[in-house]
From TrEMBL:
Domain (Cytidyltransferase-like): residue spans on this chain: 79-207
InterPro entries (alphabetical): CCT, Cyt_trans-like, Pcy1-like, Rossmann-like_a/b/a_fold
Record pathway: Lipid metabolism; Phospholipid metabolism; phosphatidylcholine biosynthesis; phosphatidylcholine from phosphocholine: step 1/2
Protein name per the record: choline-phosphate cytidylyltransferase
Lineage summary: Eukaryota, Metazoa, Chordata, Craniata, Vertebrata
Record-listed E.C. numbers: 2.7.7.15
Function according to Swiss-Prot or TrEMBL: Catalyzes the key rate-limiting step in the CDP-choline pathway for phosphatidylcholine biosynthesis.
Assigned protein family: Belongs to the cytidylyltransferase family.
SUPFAM superfamilies: Nucleotidylyl transferase
Organism the protein comes from: Nothobranchius furzeri
GO molecular function: choline-phosphate cytidylyltransferase activity; phosphatidylcholine binding
GO cellular component, one term: endoplasmic reticulum
Length: 367
């Protein structure tokens, strides 16, 4: 199976609309990217370490041919140059745009030397070897040109077989020229890219200069000497004193924050305890009233006990349906035949001398 170039791998993916700086447009939903190793395993080689090009005439490709896609063995050779001091994401994004200009791109990056940079632009933070090495390890770079020229001559373009030059479209005035890329644009070899706003080497240096004292104190705490930082003896002591004062302030601030947290926790706990106490007290009062209140269970229990006691000590009453002795009808009396109607009433039965007496049913029942 024939190996695929990075440009062909880009073509095999689903095309996405991009904004001017190479980022997907806002509102576009990106899908998941499959896990794969697409970066190079080794740093990009230097141009002067490569074998010379084959003895073929230098024939540039047109813009239309480059956009349609060139054969695998004939990538579009794009050149991008710069200082690349304090290499940052803005540099990497510019190189990414240059790499993605065409489906099959071989990106050559030129890095100017310290001599040219200090002459035309100013002092750098990183030296040329550090800047060369930083570019070599950028994933989008295929080849690095050391000691790149400040302006591009036709001989330089032909020697490196450059098809297009990538740079932002803002006129770059330097070395007595209003735009050092003017002749490249006139030749139709210019491929514009977009700058990343909000970050640049000058911005980073400005931050360091603005917060100079902070970074000096930081490095002193990390073990750098005052001599290495070019700091006087008095300033060194001043920075150490400021560091101690700041430590005390931080400790006081930490204690205040912890005390606030403690007080807040105590308040939360106290509120919680008060609420629980109120709930328990309401429950206790409710249970007390339910037991000992005017209509509580204790009153009903006492009433019920009193009723049982009274029932136990009182005599048993006759049924309501049985008549009393007075309500009973008088029993018929029987008179012996030898008693006359005019005879005196009989004496009570307990007198033994009586000759006649009445016998009733009640007497019989009593007997």
């Amino acid at each position: 199976m024939e190996p695929q170039s990075s440009g062909e791998m880009v073509l095999s993916r689903k095309r996405r609309r991009e904004s001017s700086n190479g980022e997907p447009e806002e509102g576009e939903r990106l899908g998941k990217i499959p896990r794969c190793t697409v970066g190079l395993k080794n740093p990009a080689p230097f141009a002067d370490e490569l074998e010379p090009a084959r003895n073929k005439p230098y024939e540039r490709v047109s813009m239309d041919e480059a956009k349609r896609g060139t054969p695998f063995d004939r990538p579009v050779r794009v050149y991008a140059d710069g200082i690349f001091d304090v290499f940052h994401s803005g540099h990497a994004r510019a190189l990414m745009q240059a790499k993605r200009l065409f489906p099959n791109t071989h990106l050559i990056v030129g890095v100017c030397s310290d001599e040219l940079t200090h002459k035309y632009k100013g002092f750098t933070v990183m030296n040329e070897d550090e800047r060369y090495d930083a570019i070599r390890h950028c994933r989008y770079v295929d080849e690095v040109v050391r000691n790149a020229p400040w302006t591009l001559s036709p001989e330089f373009l032909a020697r490196h077989r450059i098809d297009f030059v990538a740079h932002d479209d803002i006129p770059y005035s330097s070395a007595g020229s209003d735009d050092v890329y003017k002749h490249i644009k006139e030749a139709g070899m210019f491929a514009p890219t977009q700058r990343t706003e909000g970050i640049s080497t000058s911005d980073i240096i400005t931050r360091i200069v603005r917060d100079y004292d902070v970074y000096v104190r930081r490095n002193l705490q990390r073990g750098y000497t005052a001599k290495e930082l070019n700091v006087s003896f008095i300033n060194e002591k001043k920075y150490h004193l400021q560091e101690r004062v700041d430590k005390v302030k931080r400790k006081v601030r930490d204690v205040e924050e912890k005390s606030k947290e403690f007080v807040q926790k105590v308040e939360e706990k106290s509120i919680d305890l008060i609420q629980k106490w109120e709930e328990k007290s309401r429950e206790f009062i409710g249970n007390f009233l339910q037991m000992f209140g005017p209509e509580g269970a204790l009153k009903h229990m006492l009433k019920e006990g009193k009723g049982r006691m009274l029932q136990a000590i009182s005599p048993r009453q006759s049924p309501n349906s049985s008549p009393t002795r007075e309500e009973r009808s008088p029993s018929p009396t029987f008179r012996l035949p030898f008693f006359s109607k005019t005879s005196p009433p009989p004496s009570p039965p307990h007198h033994s001398g009586a000759r006649g007496y009445l016998i009733s049913e009640d007497d019989d029942e009593d007997d």
